[in-house]
Amino acid sequence: MAALGPRFCSQCGQPLAEAANFCSACGARTGPAQAQPQALPSAPVRVAVPPSPKSMALVVVLAIIPAFFGVYGIGHFYVGRVGRGFVILLGDWAIAVVGVALIVMGFLPDFPTSLIVLAFVFFAGTLALGIWQVFDAIRLTREWNGRVAQTGRRPW
Question: Are 72 and 147 in contact (CB under 8 A)?
């Protein structure tokens, strides 16, 4: 029976002669001629790093501070809800533009004063959206941290 490939000592790893029953280097018994299995090339191992919990203080800061500059939804970006963050941001800007347009038109001589009141209603809507987005970002952070603690995976 022909050997399938080179043989090596199982104790010291030295190459063995084709018909050797003992290793010439360490003297260990090698047994009948058996080919050493060839190692298969292995693919790189990717280790999944579990997501870290999100900071509640940071999400509050990211939701409140930019809101003073008319930029809502940043807390949602941090928590991973990018689409919702964009909708909140664009919704806030749309409400603000309509409110400013109504105020500017309200100062024209022929324009009814009720539109100025309507403009302030739009600004109240912007304020309500700002407050809601802070509480929603906090809720999403709690949900993120709870799911990461339970499953060790990203919730969304």
Answer: no
CB-based contacts of 95, cutoff 8 Å, min separation 6: 122, 123, 125, 126, 129
Query: In terms of Cα–Cα distance, which of 130, 137, 62 is closest to 96?
Result: 130
State how far the Cα of 114 lies from the Cα of 112, in Å rounded to an integer: 5
Whole-angstrom distance, CA of residue 93 vs CA of residue 100 = 10
Q: How many CA atoms does the CB half-sphere of 113 hold within 13 Å?
A: 0
Q: Is residue 137 classed exposed, middle or buried when 0-12, 13-18 and 19+ CB atoms within 10 A define those classes? A: buried
- Asked whether the whole model's pTM tops 0.70, one would answer no
Return phi, psi of residue 29, to 5°.
-70, 135
- pLDDT single digits (tens) 49-106: 888 999 999 999 999 999 889 899 999 999 999 999 999 999 999 988 888 887 777 7
The domain ranges of the chain are 1-36, 56-151
CB burial readout 73-104, b (16+ within 10 A) else e: bbbbbbbbbeebbeebbebbeebbebbeebbe
